[in-house]
């Protein structure tokens, strides 16, 4: 039997990349300095390979062996379209350079990971007019890596709309794993903004489509009689916050003549807080529950009436592809934070099966 592929997992959160990589991979090192996330990681995987220090406090000597893969889902707030867009100069997303400092130190010891994955929000493509994306590509090129990017959407795997940027860089030959060009407009635009010397190192990764998703939003929710519902007055106040478009969506769901399940966010639009709803079978992108507008609600339209309640932490975990056996924090807010900051397990699994494992094994993936 071939040996398992090895990896380092940076900004590991609750270990969702670990779950996605699965049994054919062995973790050599994982880190996250958020106390509650570290507690979740240890509760589910133990602490033999976990380090709770800030990435800037780590040194190459803390990382054992030479990993086949380094996975990094660095904090995304400064890249997010919903954030301040501070970019790589922001206090949180600059953690990327703490990670990259370690990659450079490993290279000096001839221990550079063969493949690196950077996962972040789609805003990374355009942050600072694309200069942040260019800086990451330049760092990788300077270390001898070839690289390319993909746009992924969790909706291909779970009923959650969650679009992400994934950069895959490698020291290995990507033969058999490349496509015919960028796979989305965002990727194409990011590629075209790069200077010629970086475009020359670009890889058009080929990511086959996953099997058809067989999960729907209602199927992931807890039974109605096991969760607390908001009062009729609170629900009507939510409805009153909808503009004409979202009122029409709700009215269409009520007129359908059957139970319809949707989700809602409260968002600031200018100086006005609005409720925005969707009944397309998907939850909105999970976020961290830092503010009231960031928490997602479940709406049920049935028999001419609408009810509302908050999405639970366990439901959020299911929307991230976590198994029922996964131990969530005792606090609902901590559980929602864990999910909102995480990577979607089936997305990682699909990337691993379609690109990462074949790349490291030196064989092309089978055609879809």
Structural features, described:
- 31% of the residues lie in helices and 19% in strands.
- The chain has 368 residues and is of the alpha/beta class.
- It has two domains: 5-211 and 342-361, Rossmann fold; 223-311, no CATH class.
- Helix 10 (313-319) packs parallel to helix 11.
List the helices and strands and how they pair.
Elements: E1 5-10, H1 16-21, E2 25-31, H2 35-45, E3 50-51, E4 69-72, H3 95-108, E5 115-121, H4 131-142, E6 146-153, E7 163-170, H5 185-193, H6 196-199, H7 217-220, H8 232-240, H9 244-254, E8 260-269, E9 272-278, E10 297-302, E11 305-310, H10 313-319, H11 332-340, H12 345-361
Parallel strand pairs: 1-2, 1-4, 2-3, 4-5
Antiparallel strand pairs: 5-7, 6-7, 8-9, 8-10, 10-11
Helix pairs in contact: 10-11
SSE-based structural type: alpha/beta
The name of the CATH superfamily of the largest domain reads Vaccinia Virus protein VP39
CATH class of the largest domain: Alpha Beta
How many strands, which pairing sense, and closed or not: the largest β-sheet? Answer: 7 strands, mixed
Determine the mean pLDDT. 90
What CATH architecture label of the largest domain applies? 3-Layer(aba) Sandwich
Number of strands: 11
The helix fraction, in percent, is: 25-40%
Element-by-element helix/strand order: EHEHEEHEHEEHHHHHEEEEHHH
Report strand %: 15-25%
Summed up:
This protein is an alpha/beta fold. The chain has helices at residues 16-21, 35-45, 95-108, 131-142, 185-193, 196-199, 217-220, 232-240, 244-254, 313-319, 332-340, 345-361, and strands spanning 5-10, 25-31, 50-51, 69-72, 115-121, 146-153, 163-170, 260-269, 272-278, 297-302, 305-310.
